[in-house]
Amino acid sequence: MSARILDGKALAAGLRAEIAAEVAAWQDKSGRAPGLGVVLAGDNPASRSYVTGKEKACAAAGILSREIHLPAAAGRAGILTAVQALNADETIDAVLVQLPLPDPAIERDIIEAIDPAKDVDGFHPLNIGRLVLGQTTFVPCTPLGVLEMLRRSEVPLAGAAVVVIGRSQIVGRPLSFLLSQKGVDATVTLCHTRTFDLARFTRTADIVVVAAGRPGTLTADMIRPGAVVVDVGVNRVPDPARPAGYRLVGDVDFEAVAAKASAITPVPGGVGPMTVTMLLRNTLDAARRREGGGR
Ligand code: GUN
Q1: Pair (169, 250) in one structural domain
Q2: Does residue 223 lie in a domain region?
Q3: Residue with CA at minimum distance from ligand 1 atom 1
Q4: Average pLDDT, rounded, for the chain
Q5: Which of these, 29, 48, 141, lies nearest to 102 by C-alpha position?
Q6: Is position 108 within any domain?
Q7: CA dihedral 164, 166, 167, 168 (to 10 degrees)
Q8: Contact 186, 179 (CB under 8 A)
Q9: What's the pTM value of the predicted model, to 2 decimals?
Q10: Does 175 contact ligand 1 (Cβ within 6 A)?
Q11: Catalytic annotation present for 98
Q12: CA-proximal residue: ligand 1, atom 9 (nearest)
């Protein structure tokens, strides 16, 4: 294996220590801790595990978290009531609704009910619009984590050809805007399930970011030697040998791609820890902006 492993876990640990120090300083000044409100509807095991991870990271950074856990049957009205309660809670600076919801058809309505000033996921149309316009906003945590990771790993971005695979609202689409904005200056190609001959694009890319949600999406024959590969995928593959009964794999054929790439993120321990770290940073930013009278 020749690629440098971009260790998100180690990078995130350093960043979280910096954020914890900033949180402590903010608390000294303001007299309270920043607060994150989380709405979890239903019992999707992956969502439960993500939310627990976010709450633990908050506690370690000195951020207060308040979870509203609703039954899957709570529906639109129940989830809206929870979001409104968190919007109105003065001790809560940041609100997120864990996705997917049991009924994905209501996700847009629910996200639009979040106070844009507390929208630390950056999913509200106002914040997405600001991102597209290059204005100060909450940027979705996974794209922000990918950017931070590339920057801290000193991967050149200005002028680089980046191929993003996956056009989701959570990762691919916002990442394409983030990487192409002034100051980052990458040239971005956004590929997706209907892209004809994906390898035609990935083979010429300096950086490939894979956020397709499907194991084996990127294989070694699809990259050029020396490319940088970022794997955003988190897939549970049944594995009876593991206590949990599954193991996590990304979207990239890791061993073979790592033998050809110059740098690659592992799964787990790559982008995931960076995503949670960016949530902490966005929550602290939300608290600062609210105490400062908003934007
Ligand atoms: N589900 C998967 N990723 C995310 C995320 O970043 N935020 C929320 N709210 N839900 C998710």
Answers
A1: yes
A2: yes
A3: 99
A4: 97
A5: 48
A6: yes
A7: -120
A8: yes
A9: 0.97
A10: no
A11: yes
A12: 98
